[in-house]
Amino acid sequence: MSRFSNFGNDLYTGRRSIEFVGRVKRWYLISAVLLAIMVAGLMMRGINFGIEFTGGSDFRIANVGQLPDYESRAAKVVTDVGKVEKVSVTRVGGDDVRIQTERFDDRRAQDVRAGLAKEFKVTPTDVQSSVIGPSWGQSVSKQALQALLWFLGLVSIVLAVYFRTWKMSLAALVALAHDIILTVGIYSLAGFEVTPASMIGFLTILGYSLYDTVVVFDKVRENTTDALRRGHQTYSQAANQAVNQTLVRSINTSVVALLPVAAILIVGATIIGPGTLLDLALALFVGIIVGTYSSIFIATPMLAQLREREPAMIKLRQRVERHQAVQPQVAAPVAAGAKRGGVAATGGATAFQPGARTGSAGLADGPSQERTLSGRPVHPYAQRGPRNQPKRPPRSKR
């Protein structure tokens, strides 16, 4: 744990740095491959919508979930009596069994109820049946889509106003779209059922992903403002430093959020059984992981790529490059003076080097070693090195 803490401190202080922004093409390639797989899965397998969206009949039997082979027995009754092929049998609440299939008319529904009661040796009143029309699911889908559009519109406006640039809004929205496609694609490939609870989970992970992205963007703005003022870093370098500084925080936040969600998944899958709670937890678990990935590898690198094309950022890069080009030229005379053991020129003045051959006044022997960067000889009484070096004595003492 201490090593991880030290690693986080090194990332924050800049002792260590992981290149995120500079490898933007690599992250784009990885995301493109993942998105292509998810889109192909959606096109070939489609989305496994629940009965709430497709419509159908729902049967529930109380206190039979502990019986052996309850799934195959219930499915056989429904397929034989109801003359259907697709049947979903799940356990709900520990002992209750839920059977979902296509929509039956009243007569077939009564026959299926009687057959289930006979198979499990319960009274027909212990078997509850209900019919769900597809209009309810369509209404839920329409409202969820409207909520999503309103959410994206308001988020774009808030981000543009808060960060004073529409490019941050664009990068955040691209990351959100990336998260939704990956999450829905995983549902499609794995065959998970999409229920109204899953839709709620999809909308929830948008908020989480956006929260993580805004935290990183806020640090990016802080670093880039300082870089523009001092001219010591380009926008991409400052943005990459911001990702490094918030990396450990993002990981810790995601782990803390995943732990209770994972507990709900385990309890739901082993004890409670399929239901609203399990559907919601599954969407949150997948979405939190994908949202953390996008905030680090997609949102910030894309933002840096967009802003590097601005005239102000181009001038900043040129300024940083000029500063980096001057540093070796300034360091060369200092290194040469130190090698000779004499006085090295720094910034137009001379600096006293330890080990130089000096007289009683602390001045270097020989005028050939006393030169400025421009090549002019240094005045014999010019102050050298630290302020405690001897100066020219006053006239009264000469």
Structure description:
This protein is an alpha+beta fold. The chain has 2 domains: 2-49 and 136-314, Multidrug efflux transporter AcrB transmembrane fold (Up-down Bundle); 56-132, Alpha-Beta Plaits (2-Layer Sandwich). It contains 11 helices and 8 strands. The protein has helices at residues 2-13, 24-45, 51-54, 70-82, 106-119, 134-163, 166-190, 196-230, 235-272, 276-307, 311-340, and strands spanning 48-49, 56-61, 88-92, 96-101, 127-132, 193-194, 344-346, 349-351. Strands 3-4-2-5 form a 4-stranded antiparallel beta sheet. It has a two-stranded parallel sheet with strand order 1-6. Strand 7 and strand 8 form a beta hairpin. It is elongated, with a radius of gyration of 35 Å. It starts with a helix and ends in a 47-residue tail after the last strand.
In the CATH hierarchy, the third-tier topology of the largest domain is known as Multidrug efflux transporter AcrB transmembrane fold
Determine the number of helices (DSSP H or I, runs of at least 4 residues): 11
Radius of gyration: 35 Å
| Class by SSE composition | alpha+beta
Shape: elongated
The pLDDT mean sits at 75
Q: Can you tell me the CATH superfamily of the largest domain?
A: Multidrug efflux transporter AcrB transmembrane domain
* Strand content bin: 5-15%
Question: Which CATH class of the largest domain?
Answer: Mainly Alpha
How many individual domains?
2
Strand order of the largest sheet: 3-4-2-5
Largest sheet: 4 strands, antiparallel
Return residue spans where pLDDT drops below 50 for at least 5 consecutive residues.
341-369
Helix proportion range: 55-70%
CATH architecture of the largest domain: Up-down Bundle
